[in-house]
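A favour, since you know our structure tokens better than I do. What I am after is a single protein written out in full by you. Could you add the entry underneath, on a fresh line?


***
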Amino acid sequence: MNHQPATAERDLPSLNSPRFVGRDDELRELLGALAHPPAVVLVEGEAGIGKSRLIREMLDRPEVLRRRALMAACPPFLNALTLAPVVDAVQQGVTGLEGLELSPLAGTLRPLFPEWTTELPPAPEVLTDAGAARHRLMRALAELLDQLRVEVLVVEDVHWADDATVDFLLFIAFRPATRISLVLSYRPEDLPVGSPLARLSSRPAADGGHARITLGALGVAETSELVSSMLGGEHVSAGFAALLYERTDGLPLALEESVRLLRDRADLIRQHDAWIRRPLDDIAVPVTIRDAVTERAGRLGPHAQRILAAAAVLGEPVAEATLVEVAALPAGPAVTYIDEALSGGLLFEDGNGRIAFRHVLAARAVYDTISGRERRAAHRRAGEALSARRQPPVARLAHHFRQAGDTARWSQYAEQAADLALASGDHHAAVSFLHELLADEELPGTVKTRLVQKLPIYAFTGHVGLAQVVRTLSAVLDNETLAVHERAEVRAQLGAMLMQVGEYGEGAAELERAIPDLARRVDAAKAMVVLGRAGGADVPAATHRRWLDGAARLMDGAIPAEDRASLQVDIATGLLAMGERSGWSVGAQLLDDPRMSHVHRGRGLLNLGDAAMSWGRHAEARERLTSAIEWAEQHGHQRLGDMARETMVHLDWYEGRWTGLVERSAALASLEEEPVIWLDSVLVGALFEAVCGSGAAAEEKLRTVMAEGDRRGIEDLPLEPAAALARMRLGEKRTGEALELTERPMAVVAAKGTWLWAREIAPVRVEALMAADRESEATGLVDAFADGLGDCDAPSALAALDSCRAVLIEGRGEFGRAAAAWERAAAAWEALPQPYEALLARHRQGACMLAHGEHAAALPLLSGVHDSLVELGAQRDAAAVGRTLRAHGASARPVWRGGRRGYGDQLSPRELEVARLMLGGLTTPEIAQLLSRSPKTVAAQLNSAMRKYGVSSRTALAVGLTQAGITPAEY
């Protein structure tokens, strides 16, 4: 065979940087989105797939070069400092703020940019509310970017971003009149579960370009083209390209590193003017990037290897001087060593002269080869070098000194990082730093007491993380050196957090023990408000009311205005949740107060809107929630806006505004990092599926909400799903299960005396008792419901009480009186309005009329109920009414949507047949078996039906079919 190995240096191929290969379509899509600002572009793919290269190509295009762009990267640190990527990008891209017309709001930026304090306005007043502080900070940073005329903000590796950075990106994307386009890259597999980034894809900005670009592996042809570009455009043999593709799976980083290693090993040979590999048994092509990087690094000299190690320890782009200091090399000859390290291709120099690894994977591979002793020494040198900066990066210093084993300096910088996070409103980051400090056994008790006082109570929405903090605080309490007031402060924090993780009894006990020893009135009032929330299955409402009254008595001039407003919102919310009418006057005073901050006004609008919905004051609820959504959009408060939108979704469910509700609920259900929003959206989706006949899917979701409510100690959360599931069981004549489902929820309502909560569960419980021939218990429950409501005039509870009374009368066989009672209940539900419940009551009214012999009046009534249920989309109940009509000789004519072939946007006969069976509750395999078709064919026909109806889920299809008058098939 005529080939010669490239054994001499002059025979080795010269290697170029790889050409941009296989991404032309993706680049066109990216540029196309940016052509319609403000754009949001998400670039996703695994490590080494080429996200950064695509973004660099984009930034080099003339149409982008004409626009001011900032480039940010999220570092792979466990505790990333608040907004660090954006702050670093501004610091690298701007020399100063001279000439900018900044408002007083920009004074909020002083903690982030201390080097520019002489150019920034004075610092504004400190806000105690975390949401308010973070929101103000984001508005200020957005204003700064606007003043700098930034048009494109690129943020790489968003999977490593701190919570504040992610929130800021959402703030920029959704704020009104934004002109900044976002380009964000991330690894989907490394995104936290329920990442808020889902919002950017589920709700793209309507007025700008939007793209979600997923980068995949290169094919064999593209592999050959990339390798050829590294070899000066010379031909690469097909076998060589195929082998590289097989061993690297087409991952560009792995390809590049493999080619470089083959060249370094002299394993590239020429044959007939083409580059090929040695025979397979002569070489070992690396299977992993780690192997390739490790061997390439080993081919450098010892000093260049120290440069690589220093870059790996630093983990971010740094100046040459910092790199040399961490490498512990003499400054003079170090330039030569840096050049050698750069020539190896593992490092690169950015436009600001900073040096870093090209790829995180390569950095990690080198880092793992450093011995433990040398690694600790390098981290210490990194800490020393970075601490000498005019503005030390405290979060990174905490990281380096902790890895160096220097506890004193780690704790110093970790506390500074927590303080900076708190000042910036990033309470999640603050808790992360503070928790690590509190968990350290070497810190003295007095220091831990000071740190506990900084710990925000409700910083974690994630249940597991909060549980870890609770365990840490319990350990701090065991320290016998704490003073009385210090122990009380720790105990109060512990109590509130125990209640957050569902341990209400233990948490309440800790709070009650803490209150007498708390030194500040505001701390005592806050603890009382926490105890005033209606938690704990066996804690009566009267006890909660006493705590709320106690907090109100403490609110005088000694409490700061911001704290006083926050406490008033909580008191009004607590009163209304328990059915106390006095809560409305407290809430009205709040919203009428012109001195109230916009943050507390927004929270007040949301909470009062939610309470109005629960009470059945639907018009007021819609007005409050609409105002809350408008407020959130105006001020860029994403979380509060999402909560208001989800509450509005629930209100629309009650009011029968079901068009598009499935999709809205599903979008919000993706926000698993916000449990309240997630659980409520899952509940609404389950209620939909239940009325549309998707029983199995609905039951799974209903049980999820019930279980999460129990786990989190949210006593009122399981009531509505339990009622819905019990109603399904009653429809299936499974009375025993309905009784079991409603027993504990009803017992909680009775024990607490929060009878407003009985509006969903009581009617179903009464019906289950009557079906089980337990009339005396049912009668006692209805009487207790009426007595328990007292002077609570909540329309929803009063309508539910009317339904309970109608169930009792019907169960006694007094059908004439029952028909009248159901008519009163229907009228009460219609007044809210709550049309679904009203139609169910009208169905029962008609059935009682039939049982009483009033056929002439009953059948037209039932026919109208059937048509209204069809129009609403409640196919399960429409089918039940249809059966009642047919049993009495009447018919319910469906609106047909079938047609001949050439069906256009109408269903074909086969699609209609499949759709009707799906409405009947059959799964795809069951339909396939019944019709002797393949599951793939059935799925395709259902997908075709969904396209014709313009929906994306089977639940939404069921709603559309029912509204069109299509009924379930009988099989």
